[in-house]
């Protein structure tokens, strides 16, 4: 159904970072852990992950990094995504890639935790966090809340190609300041959590229902997932409206084959955005369609693609099983065209697509189609982000790449991942953690670490025969959250100080002995 807000919903509020540890010499040779603890007000708590553990979380291989690309940071997720179960849920077979075509990849190597990462473009970790065992993360990005930059992502459990969890909002001190769900008994799905300028959040959710599936070859009391697009007031956590796909889109519009003894997923809602008029732009992957929905009435204004498209798609404008539909202008739709259903045979290359809409003629024409030079096919996931100067940033989903393209289509930046990332985003980030730096010593190598401290430009290394008599030994450049150096001598006490652009000390580690 389409419904306005009905009743107050109590959401779990989160606030504050605890476990601030003051690093000082004379602490017995141990250093403070370089991570804040994100604490729930209900008493449950989970710690951000130590840098040493984050560095074990999979490779980030920079293939291309041209100087004419934009300056900033990369935001992506590691480990499993809810969408990785999609081919299992749909009953489809995995595609075998040809010699020059990268096909469907496993989501992550066995044992790789699911987490969120900020990386420099040259491949250095800036900040990261791994979810607790058994939990997944998705859709990590920067957004704006009350005029301030925040980090947002989803955490929860995967279930048949979607997620059951909640959405996090974290400030620049890495305080977990809010969690949200759609309310009214619904859990946040992994696919979409988008903040809007008016203080609202757009959240996807899935709910299992029993309904008549005889029109698609199923039973009259078959089980399926209905998809819901919810608008939530961020300040109060109250749901303002729910839009149910089943009430507006016939199940016969789905291209997803009904499989007996499974919960059918005819829609697979994977993105919600605002169009320039404030309507909801909703992507239904399994119907290969994008809907423009009036947020007040729930009425579908128009539909692009699928079996009931309001626009005729001209040659080249076709798309299938898409992700991340947005509308940067009143007559342009952008999307990630997977062109593949979780690895089924057929289809073509995945691509970034710009489509022009002519409301007078009801014709949709292709403006631009950007494929990857490695001929990638992403059976699931993926996104398109326009980042300025005509450049475009993209996560290639299950194909395991992150890329930046110039306005002329040149590949300016490209990364290979060991597994998938649901989306990837590009932005600048300034973070100031509440904890202190950490010094790790491994043999003759020292690691100056401070997870998320973006103001650090250099590290001063101090050493001495005891903790009360330290002198400066060297100064090294900072390389993200982990900067390494060679110890000049064993048998001494070592300490590191973080320096900003002016050379001022902004953080000091505990002393650590080198044996």
Automatic annotation (TrEMBL):
**Pfam families attached to this UniProt entry:** Arylsulfotran_2
Alphabetized UniProt keyword annotations:
Signal
What's the domain of life for this entry? Bacteria
GTP-binding among keywords? no
Q: Where is the composition biased (Polar residues)?
A: 91-103
Q: Where is the signal peptide?
A: 1-23
Q: Where is this region: Disordered?
A: 91-112
Q: Answer yes or no on keyword Signal.
A: yes
Put simply, this protein is called: Arylsulfotransferase
Please name the source species: Mycolicibacterium canariasense (Mycobacterium canariasense)
């Amino acid at each position: 159904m389409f419904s306005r807000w009905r009743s107050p919903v109590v959401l779990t509020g989160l606030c504050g970072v605890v476990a601030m540890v003051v690093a000082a010499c004379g602490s017995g040779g141990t250093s403070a852990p370089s991570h804040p603890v994100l604490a729930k007000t209900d008493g449950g708590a989970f710690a951000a992950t130590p840098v040493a553990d984050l560095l074990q979380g999979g490779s980030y291989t920079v293939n291309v990094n041209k100087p004419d690309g934009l300056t900033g940071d990369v935001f992506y997720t590691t480990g499993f995504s809810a969408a990785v179960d999609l081919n299992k849920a749909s009953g489809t077979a995995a595609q075998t890639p040809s010699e020059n075509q990268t096909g469907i990849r496993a989501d992550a190597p066995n044992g790789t935790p699911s987490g969120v990462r900020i990386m420099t473009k040259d491949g250095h970790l800036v900040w990261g966090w791994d979810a607790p065992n058994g939990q997944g993360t998705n859709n990590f990005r920067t957004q704006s809340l009350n005029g301030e930059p925040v980090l947002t992502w989803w955490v929860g459990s995967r279930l048949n190609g979607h997620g059951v969890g909640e959405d996090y909002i974290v400030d620049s001190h890495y305080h977990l300041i809010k969690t949200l769900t759609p309310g009214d008994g619904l859990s946040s799905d992994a696919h979409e959590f988008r903040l809007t300028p008016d203080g609202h959040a757009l959240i996807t959710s899935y709910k299992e229902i029993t309904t008549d599936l005889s029109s698609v070859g199923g039973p009259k009391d078959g089980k399926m997932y209905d998809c819901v697009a919810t608008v939530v007031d961020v300040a109060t956590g109250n749901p303002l409206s729910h839009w149910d796909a089943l009430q507006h889109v016939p199940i016969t519009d789905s291209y997803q084959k009904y499989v007996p003894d499974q919960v059918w997923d005819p829609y697979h809602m994977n993105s919600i955005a605002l169009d320039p008029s404030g309507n909801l732009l909703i992507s239904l992957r399994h119907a290969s369609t994008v809907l423009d929905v009036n947020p007040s009435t729930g009425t579908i204004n128009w539909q692009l693609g699928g079996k009931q498209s309001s626009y005729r798609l001209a040659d080249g404008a076709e798309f299938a099983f898409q992700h991340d539909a947005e509308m940067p202008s009143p007559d342009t739709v952008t999307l990630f065209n997977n062109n593949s259903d979780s690895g089924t045979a057929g289809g073509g290359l995945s691509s970034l697509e710009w489509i022009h809409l002519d409301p007078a003629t009801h014709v949709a024409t292709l403006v631009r189609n950007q494929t990857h030079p490695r001929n990638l096919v992403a059976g699931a996931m993926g996104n398109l982000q326009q980042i300025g100067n005509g450049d475009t940033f993209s996560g290639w989903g299950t194909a395991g790449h992150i890329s930046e393209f110039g306005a002329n289509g040149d590949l300016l930046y490209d990364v290979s991942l060991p597994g998938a990332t649901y989306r990837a985003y590009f932005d600048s980030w300034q973070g100031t953690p509440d904890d202190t730096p950490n010094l790790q010593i491994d043999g003759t190598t020292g690691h100056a670490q401070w997870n998320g401290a973006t103001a650090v430009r250099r590290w001063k290394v101090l050493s001495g025969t005891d903790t009360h008599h330290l002198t400066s030994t060297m100064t090294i450049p900072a390389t993200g959250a982990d900067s390494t150096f060679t110890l000049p001598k064993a048998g001494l006490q070592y300490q590191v100080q973080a320096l900003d652009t002016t050379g001022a000390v902004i953080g000091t580690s505990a002393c650590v002995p080198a044996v």
